[in-house]
Give the backbone structure.
Amino acid sequence: VDFANASNTVLSPVQTIAISEFSSNLNGLTAFNAFPQPNGQRLDPLRETIMHRLAYRNMGSYEALIGNLVTDVDGNDTGGIRWFELRRTGGPGNAWTLFQEGTYAPADAGGPADRWMGGIAMDESGNIALGYSVTRQSPGIPASLRYVGRLNGDPAGVMTSNENDIVSGGGSQSGERWGDYHSMSIDPEDGCTFWFTGNFVPTSSWATQVAAFKHDACGSPTFSMVGTNLEQSVCAGPVATDLDGVNLTINALNGFGDMVDLDFGIGGLPTGFSGQLVPTQVSPPAMALAELAVDNTAALGTNVVTVRATSGAIERTTLVNVNVATDIPSVPMLSMPADMATLVDTSPMFSWQASTQVESYLFELATDAAFANIVVSEMANGTNFQAAVALNTNTTYFWRVSAGNICGDSAASAVFSFTTAPAPGDCTDGVQANVTYQYGFEAGANGWTSSGTGNTWAQSTQRVNSGSFSWKAVDPASTSDQRLVSPAVALPSGQSPLTLQFFHFRDIEESGTTQCWDAGLLEVSTDGGSNWTQITDLELLTDPYTGDVRAGTSTNPLAGLQAWCDLQDWTKVIVDIDAFAGETAQFRFRLGSDGSVGAEGWYIDDVKVQSCGIGEDIFSDGFE
């Protein structure tokens, strides 16, 4: 390397190592967003590169290099972590070989979550730990940090430990930038402690978290103890109630060979608890059982039972958390949104006063006071709840909360109602919505036509906003000008606001965050399609254009125009078409592309033309 004159530098690969196939195609190969947060904003996957840093460890008889990168695990842009270990024996004159590799993407309750941006390291005993980001849109997992690990000698290619939380996120950020890297390193003082640094989203922007942990099987001889049934609940009465037995597993580590004594710690059992350990002394590897019972003299709420294992100066503890209740909880009292509140945000934070002896709450939201049509029914641990999906605008909702514990469930709270704020295009109170045209593409083309250079517009079942069909145009890696035209719609006059409404999903090649290489836009014609006028940002009441289509060297027929691009999930677009009231109009969805990189394309669904007019009075003068 010639740092003074870079043109003299020649970089040549020293060695090529074959690994199993993986996919870096996460939202294509150019976009900087892929993994959706609960608010829908997607985060940068940092694909195609090995994460910082490639970790080195000299184990004496061999050297090891371990690293990781993100991969699409299912072809649907779900992120998992491909990790690997290279080994070399005999020193620098010899080749590195692939010792093991694996992809960490465990099955998730509620649907796949995205895991990426890992930090990985190896302790002095050859054990590995991997920390990483995790997020999911729905059910929501705000950007959080977790870790897993494996012991030296475990089955190759598998992270054998349970997945552990480092810190849970509490919100979503508004931008795509993430990282750029996380760090995992080993404490030089003991050679065993992993130090991990990464970012998460506590509320609405990122923050940094530092964590430390280690494998018990690292370093000098010792033992470990783990237990089952560590979280329990009991409805206690005057006669002691038996809890589920706590099964304890005590294992020897690093050649440990001494006896281990078991007890309930320095303070013994909490008030109201009784029990015994069987046996009280073991020689690892061994099993033991903690038998526990509790009556109603125990403190209400969480009681912590400590099971202690000691051998000389070595001490291990296992904590059993027992939630004690003696009666069903009190009925919750609702707080916010206030009863009959109006202009409420579509993502409100619901809150209520705490019930007595509560373990969890059931939150229910419906569109009718009888709760015949419940739209949200979810459990909540605290006195706040926010739905993962935004509510409809200009809509009245009803909500209630009940409290539960091991003894039973309370009655439901009093029912509160509220009305969400109207969105652009919504009709105000007392004014009825008149739907002039509505079609969800469930019965064929039905008057819709397509044409243009490289036209790929066709009905699709690949992605839909509702029903089974949408219209889709592929964003190709070649120059195209693809046009989808609606049937003629006679627009009413004197019924403002008059709007065109539709949903679209787009995965169209962008150029940064404010420009497009390929793009889609909307046009209108009032003369049977002889002339077309582009709908501008001023008329887009929601979801404005991403930016301008790059001109200059671009071959895109839409170069220089404002248009949509990038990756965005199904979004409702509301267009002000008051200027065309009284006309017969057609609408044209136009996708243009240049001659290089393509993407999945553009989907259109659930098109509607709506106006607002005064409904008929029951009595014209207001009297019978």
Summary: Residues 277 and 290 are 5 Å apart (CA to CA). Confidence is low (pLDDT under 50) at residues 615-624. The domain at 222-325 is CATH 2.60.40.10 (Immunoglobulin-like). The longest strand covers residues 599-614.
